[in-house]
Amino acid sequence: MVFILIATTDPVLKNTAKYHSEFAMMEKSEHYVLHDLRTLHIIELSKLPPQSSGRLVSWLRFISAQRKEELMELVKENPELKYACNALEEVNSTAEVRALYEVDLKRWRDERDRTDYAVQKAVTAERKKTEAERKKAEAAQKKVEKTLALVEQGYSSDQIRTMLRKKG
């Protein structure tokens, strides 16, 4: 079982308003689950209803909290979050850990930028290829139109072939 928490303001799964979605690998034609350990749970924090409550919701709000005040409010509601809050505060106060975080964040951003660049390069290449194919198709269309015009004017196939070779 794999859990993925997505803490974005924009929904990732556009087909549902649910904040928790579960996906399983299934056999294609008979639709039975391969194994329960192969499930993927996606929790979109941006879809978490504001009125929801409970232990899991407290943890999800803890994960998505942006300010210390939010964390303190959550600790008041759920005391078991105090240990996590203290650990988070300790980690954030250690310069070495903070530096490692910054390095990881830079690495992640660099990888995202490389991926974005590769996608953009592929899209540009595909557009150029499509444009070249469109121009080829237009040239072929013009040749067909010229041929039809010459046929309508009464030229023989040999005469048309000769004329088209000369004109390119």
Number of helices: 5
Helix content: 55-70%
Distance between the termini: 64 Å
The SSE string, one letter per element, is EEEHHHHH
How do the strands line up in the largest sheet? 1-3-2
Q: What portion of the residues fall into strands of 2 or more residues? A: 5-15%
Short summary:
The protein contains five helices and three strands; from the N terminus they run βββααααα. The chain is mainly alpha-helical and 168 residues long.
Description:
The protein contains 5 helices and 3 strands, in the order E-E-E-H-H-H-H-H. It has a 3-stranded mixed sheet with strand order 1-3-2, with no helix packed on it. The N and C termini lie far apart (64 Å). It has 168 residues and is mostly helical. The protein has helices spanning 55-64, 68-77, 81-93, 95-152, 157-167, and strands spanning 2-6, 20-24, 39-44. The mean pLDDT is 84. It has a domain at 1-47.
List the helices and strands and how they pair.
Blueprint: E1 2-6, E2 20-24, E3 39-44, H1 55-64, H2 68-77, H3 81-93, H4 95-152, H5 157-167
Parallel strand pairs: 1-3
Antiparallel strand pairs: 2-3
